[in-house]
Amino acid sequence: MASNLLIVESPSKAKTLKKYLGKDFEILASYGHVRDLVPKTGAVDPDDNFRMQYELIDRNSKHVDAIAKAVKNADHVLLATVPDREGEAIAWHLSEILKSRKALKDKTLQRVVFYEITEGAVKEAVRNPRAISMDLVNAQQARRALDYLVGFNLSPLLWKKIRRGLSAGRVQSPALRLICERENEIEAFKSQEYWSIHFDGEKDRLVSVRASRAVAAANPSWRFAVAPDVGHVPQLEAPVWTAGHILDWLAADVVAPGGSDPWNS
Q1: In this structure, is residue 144 part of a structural domain?
Q2: What's the predicted TM-score (pTM) here?
Q3: Cα 166 to Cα 248: distance, rounded to the nearest angstrom
Q4: Residues 6+ apart with CB under 8 A from 59
């Protein structure tokens, strides 16, 4: 009988690993997540340090029972779920379930991680087990708590107002808010006439002046806005206008823009 029990998520992966590790290892699959938040109000309690209430996932309860039964006949338990925060959380949930069933007495339980399904990588991982990383576990729990606190309360509103089956979670809700805020700014925007002024001169002599209306300019320092009480730009005729005339006109009739560029949707 195998003294080592290796637990993975995928049953197809279990068959491959059995070929690599041989008869000293029994390989079982959890078939993904084994616990989730209870589907009711209060599953995450912000007033109690965000305490979370979990329950077994029904469809995987038989796989958990098989794992707990196999643990009794093993000396070493290795949790080889996928190497990310979800996999780390599954490993932690399995360890918590086994502890609650008092199945780990006189057993060692460790975490192994491999990033490729090759014989060398798998055997190297088994030779170098580690403890479960609670930083990764807590990262996954924080994500799940946010999903619950936002989505559990907001999704029913979407079902009522739009249609059933829509979800609102930690990503959709702030994204929707950003869209709404952008749309409000677009609707509230008041257009303003901007002009680009170009001067050509030689020493003290003004050769030409060109003015063109523009919504925005690449360099704000070269952009001017018509003052509200002016409403127009006078005809600029190069032979008549001097540098002094230009400065007087800018001081009297044109103001530097104070607002930001208009939103583009």
Answers
A1: no
A2: 0.64
A3: 62
A4: 31
